[in-house]
Amino acid sequence: xxxxxxxxxxxxxxxxxxxxxxxxxxxxxxxxxxxxxxxxxxxxxxxxxxxxxxxxxxxxxxxxxxxxxxxxxxxxxxxxxxxxxxxxxxxxxxxxxxxxxxxxxxxxxxxxxxxxxxxxxxxxxxxxxxxxxxxxxxxxxxxxxxxxxxxxxxxxxxxxxxxxxxxxxxxxxxxxxxxxxxxxxxxxxxxxxxxxxxxxxxxxxxxxxxxxxxxxxxxxxxxxxxxxxxxxxxxxxxxxxxxxxxxxxxxxxxxxxxxxxxxxxxxxxxxxxxxxxxxxxxxxxxxxxxxxxxxxxxxxxxxxxxxxxxxxxxxxxxxxxxxxxxxxxxxxxxxxxxxxxxxxxx
Length: 346
Fold this sequence. Notes:
The protein is an alpha/beta fold. It contains eleven helices and twelve strands. The protein has helices at about 15-20, 25-30, 40-55, 60-70, 85-100, 115-125, 165-180, 195-210, 230-240, 255-265, 300-315; strands at about 75-80, 105-110, 130-135, 145-150, 160-165, 185-190, 220, 250, 275-280, 295, 325-330, 330-335. α5 (about 85-100) crosses α11, α7 packs across α8 and α9 (about 230-240) packs across α10. The longest helix has 17 residues, at about 300-315. It is elongated, with a radius of gyration of 26 Å. It starts with 12 loop residues before the first helix and ends in a 12-residue tail after the last strand. The model is unreliable at about 1-5 (pLDDT under 50).
């Protein structure tokens, strides 16, 4: 006698139809979650799911895709995968696509133009139904429905989801100014990031609005594409080397802000008693730092989910012209332990 019974071979839709005495079309609608299934009584739907489990039924995804003329996959382009911006957006993309019955191919390109161009070709060869590009400059306009998140420029037929950087900068600068910070240092993003220039211009606008000046000796820039805390750490060392006093530091993102806190502590400066530190993004680990990080919160997962929903909707109107559109999302400001009143003396 065999130790284990062999697993039943998957049944066909015809087998379920004969067993239940229902049409194959009705069974298919229920198992595939089609809108028309709502008209089928709940008790009948439960019978269908129970029979599918009993007979080990698995839908033929390939056949269904060929019938629809779609692969039910989306190509997603990201700079890299790490504890930061892209990963949070990607989590929202995944949620939105899974809800719509889609899966996705993921390609990271590390901001290399040749890899981005090659990736677009690879995705088209794999018959994806659409593309979502996160912080990615697209050199080629694809014929596929395409949604971009925080991407530079605006191409015909592409919806770009962007943050209201002006609002984010005002929230941070106004808060710091309200705590009597007048000497602020800044860490700009890398040259290749699509958020660097709009965010920096937004900061300069917020400073002028608050009647504050910007000392260029207190502005450093992230260098390199390492998805770690090191670029922020080295940028802060550069600021400290200027030997100019500052009581607050506004970093390009949370990852660089965490590196900045390490550099400040190494020279004996306390956060926030001596220097307040503000980040940007509100990644998951921001609230669990020591001290917990005050930051401008981007609704990253919401932006990702919106991108997924939008590309699926555009796939549904395939063949029709889609006008270019920019969707602007407002940030929030989250106050935690890394900020406090400006010190009277150093």
